[in-house]
């Protein structure tokens, strides 16, 4: 199966949308090589349809630079997985600590993202002191907790999961200190208190196994109807959507969303993941992709569905293996932060494929890391790996990759090397070519090609360790090279370009 030619690069992952726009514009203004319109991130595709696309995150994973780069660029909304929960924010009665939650709202502010606050009132991750209170003191403690936290995050949290998981599977109210103390009225009291503290935040009830029609979603529907009738400040219902391939897709998800919407409420998919029994295989992965696609389609079909949040975007930081022993692989990206077929399924559902070409043939991207400890010595050592994010195999002999750099005086002849690759350096070709009209950061490029082979859907070549030097062994200054950055782990590299059949399919040329 050969790669179809395409005239548009379609991936901009890893680069903030604004920056991509700026680069594309700069290139156009400078009259440089044609740079086609980027297709946008998941969030951009969702935003074009009036929705957001977000991810859970939290403090432990934010120092992972490659993780944070994709979190900050691909997603328009984030939810702290743990750091706004009661056990973190008020571990001792009356002693509040918002430091960790603030890290998340700060990240969002820096990346132009909205935040869903999660969660004010929940039976779980609740510090022991709440359960030890005499019931007569629980209402005051709950009101104080909500007031302090919602006030602290005023203007920073767009929507709150005010009450999380109020129901049992059969639709009865779940036992909790709040229900014991106040009966089912605790829900309305919590909503009123949150509204008083932050009148601008959208207030939600959130639960799992309410995605489809059934006893539990009927209970949520009855409660939401009652609260709306009584004029209690409720804006929406959050469906967690912790799905599993072995349990089937929730029955009538779209119709269920629509009945909440018909009450005048917003609906949000708040914690989407699709787990499976390990080991993963192609069949389970296909089912998973279908579930992600169906959730996306349901949200798109219901006008009041405001957006989708995945419960972290990568298997690297999933809660699933720790909570459901033997299960995993639940997220859109694998543990190496490489998008899985489910990612493409969501993308396609959001309208992000090539529109009319049918499927997603041979979508390629390149990831790069610097293997060079010195940016000022006589060798350049890029590590590159080609990834097929599409649905069909890509024929490698049609593919070339360009790594752009400056020669920095010295000889104009080069030696190039492939030092190691799991696909075998004997299939990798490499040469240096001069740029006919030198650009800032690029008067030469290292061109990498392949003598044979194909890359299956979802597969990667694995790293290709490359090296080049001038034949007079004079030094480079890599710091200003277009494709260079100092990152030492593999990350999507929009400034390393990929061509199929001679046409640009990934990245932005200098
Ligand atoms: C999970 C977190 O992801 C884990 O890190 C933590 O150990 C337990 O809670 N429903 C919810 C979330 O509403 O708060 C849960 O998050 C996942 C299930």
Q: What keywords describe this structure?
A:
510 residues, alpha/beta, TIM Barrel, Immunoglobulin-like, 22 strands, binds (3S,4R)-3-hydroxy-2-oxopiperidin-4-yl beta-D-xylopyranoside
In short:
The chain has 510 residues and is α/β, with parallel strands linked by helices.
Describe the protein's architecture and organization.
The protein has 14 helices and 22 strands. Residues 1-38 and 354-362 have low confidence and may be disordered. It has two domains: 15-349, Glycosidases (TIM Barrel); 361-506, Sandwich (Immunoglobulin-like), CATH 2.60.40.710. The protein starts with 16 loop residues before the first helix and ends with a strand. A hairpin with a 2-residue loop joins strand 21 (497-500) and strand 22 (503-506). Helix 7 (135-152) runs parallel beside helix 9 (185-197) and helix 11 packs parallel to helix 12 (282-301). An eight-stranded parallel barrel has the order 1-2-3-4-5-6-8-9, surrounded by five helices. A five-stranded antiparallel sheet has the order 15-19-12-11-20, with no helix packed on it. It is an alpha/beta fold and 510 residues long. It binds (3S,4R)-3-hydroxy-2-oxopiperidin-4-yl beta-D-xylopyranoside.
């Amino acid at each position: 199966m050969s790669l179809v030619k395409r005239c548009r690069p379609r991936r901009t992952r890893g680069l903030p949308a604004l920056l991509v726009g700026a680069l594309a514009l700069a290139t156009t203004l400078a009259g440089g090589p044609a740079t086609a319109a980027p297709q946008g991130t998941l969030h951009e595709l969702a935003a074009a349809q009036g929705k957001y696309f977000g991810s859970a995150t939290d403090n432990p994973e934010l120092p992972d630079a490659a993780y944070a780069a994709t979190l900050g660029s691909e997603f328009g909304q984030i939810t702290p997985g743990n750091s706004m929960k009661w056990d973190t924010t008020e571990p001792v009665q009356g002693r509040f600590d918002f430091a960790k939650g603030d890290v998340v709202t700060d990240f969002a502010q820096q990346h132009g993202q909205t935040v869903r606050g999660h969660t004010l009132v929940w039976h779980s991750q609740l510090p022991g002191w709440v359960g030890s209170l005499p019931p007569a003191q629980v209402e005051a403690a709950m009101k104080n907790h909500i007031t302090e936290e919602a006030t602290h995050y005023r203007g920073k949290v767009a929507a709150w999961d005010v009450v999380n998981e109020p129901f049992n599977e059969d639709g009865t109210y779940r036992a909790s200190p709040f229900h014991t103390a106040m009966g089912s009225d605790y829900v309305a009291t919590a909503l009123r208190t949150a509204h008083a503290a932050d009148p601008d935040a959208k207030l939600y009830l959130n639960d799992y196994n309410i995605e489809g029609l059934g006893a539990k979603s009927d209970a949520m529907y009855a409660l939401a109807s009652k609260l709306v009738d009584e004029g209690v400040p409720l804006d929406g219902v959050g469906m967690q959507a912790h799905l599993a391939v072995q349990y089937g897709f929730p029955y009538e998800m779209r119709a269920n969303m629509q009945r909440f919407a018909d009450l005048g409420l917003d609906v949000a998919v708040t914690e989407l993941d699709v787990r499976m029994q390990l080991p993963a295989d192609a069949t389970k992965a296909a089912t998973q992709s279908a579930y992600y696609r169906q959730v996306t389609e349901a949200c798109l079909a219901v006008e009041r569905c405001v957006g989708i949040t995945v419960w972290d975007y990568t298997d690297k930081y999933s809660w699933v293996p720790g909570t459901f022993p033997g299960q995993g692989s639940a997220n859109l990206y694998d543990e190496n932060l490489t998008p899985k077929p489910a990612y493409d399924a969501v993308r396609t559902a959001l309208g992000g494929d090539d529109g009319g070409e049918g499927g997603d043939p041979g979508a390629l991207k390149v990831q790069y890391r610097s293997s060079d400890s010195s940016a000022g010595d006589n060798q350049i050592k890029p590590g590159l790996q080609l990834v097929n994010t599409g649905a069909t195999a890509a024929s490698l002999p049609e593919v070339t990759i360009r790594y752009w750099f400056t020669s920095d005086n010295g000889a104009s002849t080069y030696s190039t090397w492939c030092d190691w690759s799991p696909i075998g350096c004997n299939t990798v070709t490499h040469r240096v070519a001069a740029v006919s009209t030198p650009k800032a950061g690029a008067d030469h490029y290292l061109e990498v090609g392949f003598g044979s082979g194909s890359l299956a859907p979802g597969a990667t070549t694995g790293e290709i360790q490359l090296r080049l030097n001038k034949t007079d062994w004079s030094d480079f200054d890599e710091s200003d090279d277009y494709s260079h950055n100092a990152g030492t782990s593999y990350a999507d590299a929009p400034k390393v370009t990929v061509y199929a059949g001679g046409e640009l399919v990934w990245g932005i040329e200098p």
